[in-house]
Amino acid sequence: NLLLCLLFQGVLLYETLGWQVRMPKEIHGLKGSCLVIPCSFYYLSNPPTNPERVVWYQWVSKGYPLVYDPWYPSYIIDKFREKTSLYGDPTNWSCSLLIERLDQSHHREKLYAWIDPENVGRGTYRFFDVTSTIHVDTDPKPPTIKLYGGERTGDDMTAACITYHSCPYSKPNITLKGIEGSDQITNDQLDVLIEDGLWKITLTRTGVVKAESSDIECTVTHYGGITTRATKNKQSACIYNYIIIEPNRADVVEGVPKDFTCTINHSCLKDPPSISWNYKNMQVSNGNKKLTEFNSATSSTVTFLAEKKDRGKKLICTAEFSGKNVQASVDLHVQWKVLGPSVIVPIIVFLLLCAGVIIYKRRLNKPFDDIIYVKSIFLQILSSCVYGTFLLANFFTFEPQSGISTVYNYNAPQEPM
């Protein structure tokens, strides 16, 4: 008896598993677009007489309202009439249904498929137990944007815009803004049908990052003209190539103005660095020049007026950006101002007068025709002039020295700003 019971249960299980129909329990479609309900079937026993015949019904508690039936098109209920067809080949185990011009009347309709209903009865398989409920969306979901690379300005970046649709023969139109480059869009063979009956489509674009802040916008226009969009911001680090002070020989004269220019080459197009000097209260002019599509030069010129106390100090420029900074400097070598003719001439006249006084006093004491005496007077005058000139030269001037520009690389070159 136990063996017979197990055998009977095995037969029932075989009959139960002899047929199988699969479709998503719920599916979403966009109003005005089309919708495909993915459906597949398989059987091991009780094969259909006409395996290519597939009929779709509206699920109700009583009756079998037709949604799709090529044999009896006039019996199809109004909301689905002339809107339904098969999407796929039943010989390949497909029973998928295509619904065109989806409208609000289709919202929350529960449908099911029946294979060869004239020959495969409910006793063989309960087709109405496997249903799919339609949800009609009035607004499409915004696309998804994914960004790869582009960590620094000038680097390559890939932007991918991903969207889903329920109408395979009328794909949405996708556009990208905020990045220029070559496009690649998935074609028919690469579209992916996911489990809930939606198709995935991706537009990919690769380009070069031109600014430290980029807004990538993806716009999707679905069948029927319904549009949705998404925006994603990409922050990229800008870089600098070098910073330098010119001229790099810092020989300055006390009280005489001299211009020094600090220049930094960088890729910060939207937010260029600001340059400051360690000496304040001096005339400064700033400028910014675009060198190439991705590089600019920011400069600052200071009119430096040296004082005696500046000798041995440094003239430093600092470029600040994004909370970081880089510096360049030159050593200051201050020369005291050389005396001009307006000072030298009176001194010479004074020395000559002194010499004349000496000669006059000497002549009062000794005759002028004494050769030794004349030589002595001449040597005294000459030594006095030379010694006086030497003292004046050492007091007002000194031999110039060179000051070489120094760069403080607080951020190494080619590092992000």
TrEMBL record:
Keyword set includes Transmembrane: yes
Transmembrane segments: 338-360, 372-396
Signal peptide start-end: 1-18
Ig-like domain sequence ranges: 241-331
Keywords for this protein: Membrane, Signal, Transmembrane, Transmembrane helix
The protein's name: Sialoadhesin-like
Organism this protein belongs to: Triplophysa rosa (Cave loach)
